[in-house]
Every structure is written in structure tokens, then in C-alpha cells.
Amino acid sequence: MLTKRTFLAAAAALSLALPSAMAVAEERIDVVTTTGMIADAAREVGGDLVEVRALMGPGVDPHAYRQTRTDIVALANADLVLWHGLYLEAQMEEFLIELAETGNVVAVAEAMPRNLLIGHDDYDDRYDPHVWMNPNLWSRVVLTVRDSLIETHPEAEATFRANADAHLEELRTLAQYTTGVLSSVPAESRVLLSAHDAFNYFGSAYGFEVTGIQGISTESEAGLQRIAELVDMLVERDIRAVFVESSVSDRNIRALIEGAAAEGHEVVIGGELFSDAMGADGSYEGTYLGMIDHNATVISQALGGEVPDGGMQGLLN
Predict the structure, then answer these.
(1) Do 45 and 118 belong together in one domain?
(2) What DSSP assignment string belongs to 107-173?
(3) Which of 84, 181, 220, 260 is the most interior residue, by most CB within 10 Å?
């Protein structure tokens, strides 16, 4: 694992070979984030005053991600580093904590009131990090991003506050839409089974029973007994749709479908959900609004709810 001394040595050597962010985007605040969701919030709040780079792109699993040599340089040169915390970036956490000793580094979800967080089944001092699944909770992260940008560049406080207010209004509209379409799912069908436990905040917000094959982290393993238990649940409760995730292998989901078929019970894939990463860069699903709009629309439609064509704004593919 990279130590602080190793990090400083590598950053010093590599920064000579790579152009600085300020040379590429002069006068902009250079912001480096871990996840795409945080990067989206930084772009919304920062507007034209920021140049934002996310280390983890579409389809990348943050639970397993390790910083590369290029990442080290970007993090060292950044005016502001934003990471999630709550043990989401498990393989990077020690490195980021060390970086915070000398740099402008903020864990944007760590300030969340603990009474709003869902505890981790296996650790008393850990919490489920997937707070972006509830737009109302994510609004708190947006406020932390806003305050971090103001602290970094106080001269632009008025702009950052205005941009944040506008984005928070979009999040309120998103929350209203998701509540509406998901409430149309029949009560007996409100069971969401996916690859790992990324949807607990979703389930709490919208009244769905949520089950993941793996635990909160994708680093956990699902054994044959777990698969067998879930096959029994699918059959006994007549659940006919399960969901794959864009950043997690579909191997276990397909094992469930095959196991249910062996019992004479047909199960289909209800759709692909964005769990730990957003959609393709440049697409509507590659924004936070599009990611959550997609998830809510796909889940509702697959489980018997009523949804408008193209989702909240008619922009879904």
C-alpha cells in the first residue's frame, strides 16, 4: 500500500512529466473527485469556475478501486479533492486520509448526521455509504460540495450559492418524480433484488424491500448457500424480475435465474441499474439526475408501475 512518503516521492517525480491542471484550464479551480456522482455535483455547483475530473468513470466499482500513478499526480496537484467516505473507497481510504494532512481534501458524506445513515450489518462503526440513492440525502452532500468550493475560492461564494440553489431545486423535482412513479408499483411487488446491497437508502425512502446477493461492499463473496436461499425466496414469493448493475458482474444474478428455472419458476432481468457509477460520459444517464431518473423509471416499469415515456424529462434512452 502506498505510504505518505511514497506518495510524495511519486508525485514529485511524475508531476514533471505531466502538464499541470492550471496549464490546461487557466484560472479554473482544479477539482479531482473519486466518483462520478461527486464530480457531477462539483460541476453543477462550480459551473464555469471549475475543471473537474472523476477518477472512477462509468462501470467502475469504487469499493475495489485503487489509485494509479496518474491519479496520484492529479490528486497532488488539485486545488480541491472530494471523496465520498463512509468506507466507499475502501482501497483508497488510508491514502486519502494521509493526503488530507497536507492538502485540501474533503470526504463529502462523512458530515452526514449519523441518525440518517443505515448501519453496516458486519461493523458497529461502519455505515452504508450509498446515500446517493435518496435524492433528499444527496442534497446534503451537494451542500458540502458547495461549502468546500467556497472555502477554496471565497471570492466566488455568491456564484457557488446560486448554482447550488438551482441544483437543489432540480433535486427536489427529481425526488417528487421518483416518489410518484415508485408509489405506482403494487405493494406486493415492491421487492428489489440486485447484485449487491447498494439500494438500502432507496428502499427506506420508497418503501421497497431490498435484497442484495452480496453485501454492502462488492468485495464480499456470495456462496452457494446464499444463492440457494435467494432462489427459494424467488420461488416462494413469486418474484419474477431481478436487476443487474452496471458496475457489478451479472454472474450471480444469472445463477439465480438459472436456479429458479430449475425449480420451474421463470425470472427475467428487469433491467440494468446504475448503483456505484453513473452512465456513459456525455449521456443523460451520465448525470446524477439521469442516473436516478433511469433507476426509478426502470424499477417501476419492471415491477408493474406506471411511468412516462423517457422518464422524468423524456430523456432516457
Answers:
(1) yes
(2) ETTTTS-GGGSPBPSS-TT-B---GGGSHHHHHHHHHHHHHHHHHH-GGGHHHHHHHHHHHHHHHHH
(3) 84
